[in-house]
Amino acid sequence: MTRAHTRRVSIEPFRDGTALVASILAPLVLYVLTMPRTVVLEDDGLFLMAGAHLGVAHPPGYPLYTLIVHLFTLLPFGSVAFLGHLSSATLGALACGCVYVCGRLIGASSIPALTASLLFAVSEHFWSQAIVTEVYTLNALFFFGIYALVLCGVRHPHRPGIWIAAAAACGLSLANHVPLTVLSAPGLALPAISVRRKLYRKLPLLLAVLACGAVLPYAWMVWRSHQDILINFYGSIDSLKAFWFYFSRQGYIEVDTSPSAGWNDRFMFMQWLGNEFLWQLTLPGFALSALGLMLLFRRRQTDIAVSGLLVFLTNSIVLIVLLRFDFDYFQVAVFRPYSILCYGLLALWLGIGLQCVSHWLKKRFTDKTPYGPKVGISAAILAGACLVWWSVQSHWKPNDRADNDFAEQHAEMQMDLLPDDAVLFVFGDTTGPIGYYRYVENRRPDVTLYNLQGLVYGERLFNPFMSTEKRDAVLERFIDSNERAIFLPLDVDFYPNRELRIYGFLMEAVRSGIPGTIKLKRHPRGEAFFVQLINRKPTDRWERVRRNEMLFHYGRYLGLAYFTGDPVFEQLQEPFRLAHGSYASLLGMASVVLDNGNSSNWEQVGKWLTRAETLRHEALKKKTLAELYYQKGRLFQNQGRTNAAVVSFRKSRDVYPHPRNKALKALDRYGIDFKRVNQPLR
After folding, report:
1. Distance of alpha carbon 602 from alpha carbon 585, whole angstroms
2. Which of 328, 436, 524, 636 has the fewest beta carbons under 10 Å from its own?
3. Torsion angle, alpha carbons of 389, 394, 399, 404, to 10
């Protein structure tokens, strides 16, 4: 391997200092202007709760980020949500500053390096993570900070302080996002090979510093898990085995590797990501990046070029192969922050490309006019400003979330329904926003929250690793022995053996009623929220998916009102009319009538499903599209149309060949092998 060359660039303290400050402050101002003022989706609510209460977040725990968020929440201004988002904004802005330093170290002058850092700052995916409480801006700060230290260390191998700082940063990075740090490690280490002989004697010290940086935050996390804290994802970490389960994310294995994902999904992810690489820094920016990478090889800066390429590939292609995600709208939302380092590397190469173009213009005009050098500088400034402005214009709308209060309104709507001293069970994505509402802002302190999976909240009814049967038994005993009003979301599989009063988005288990009966109740604020959901056109991917889930479950409520002829249906005519324009709500209405109705309802169900099929572009997950064909198969089955039912079940299976897809069991009942697509009926 060729020795790493960090081109000698003359340092001008005033110009470099000004550019470095601009590379940090400009993104920070942008992020503060566009970040939400209250809790949002993703893991925002969970990290806000963990940071505010020094709790334990989801695996692998993110102890360092939790501590950083906590420090920001101590600032004497703004809400906890604002300060949590400010923590990510600050870390993201500092990461942009590190990109500037890296650009200077690999040979770009101040203006191209500043352009590179600003284009990285305003790339859509990085910007989206810098305005919510998430760990990816800290990961970017560590990577580009370590990269800058390694490049400095290659220049000055006899300065041990540089390598000690790099080792400490590597250790702390492992206390933030382990998988992404491990994937990036080979690329970070590559430039240091050229000075390996000078590092041998320091290796034991460097490894010790790295280990301390990684171990100490996790040791604090384990100790903290044994305290009586409000936010404690799995509860006490009592053994090395329990810690390994937590650290290695074994509980997320079904999330990271879907049994229905195949190579076609991987290729579609690669195609999608390739398109993002073209446009995240603008198309001219990508062309300059390609030019810059080529120049690094031509200048014999081989180690730098190869190290960057290695990180680029491990954080994109290798990651896609390892994860095995189903390719759909939602999984793209989950995946897209994982590759933000790639945009930073593209930005660095862009800086080299822009430097080359500026230098070429300077030489071309020097012979014709004494203002040649100024022409080159002016061209670089103008090109950089145009690229940054273009990117800001393109990415402002999806990332301007200053007025986003979707999650807060949902929490307020649910809390509005609850009487004094009620118990509310939550599940899935509502756990964070509702928990933030209750445990951080301390609104409705009379309400007790429990997670139906036994996760997140320190107050829990059962161990999260308890079997489903035992968990349901514990829940039944709790509900039977409790005098308080108990509410549950509709999107659960657990329905207590009590009278259920359904209010649209929530249901109440009534102790004094007749077990097994269902009564429909109005909740005016819930109806208003449903109308708002129908009319809302969010740009955030997580919000769009969550909106559809809510519309589906409210559709089930409307379907119950329709087929039972409940008097409440007369007061739900406007929501019922609006539901006919929503794929999710139509599917919800059809599914509940198929579950409970009779032959007199099948014609109406058929109309709903036909209408839903025309709106199938609104199905944002493979699972929800497959549900349409599964419900059509059920309808055909109920109508005695066996061949049509099988065709529809097969469509459902082909869309989402996951073991949890009920269409597979339906086909199995017909004697059709899941793996044999064209096997005829027996």
Report:
1. 17
2. 524
3. 110
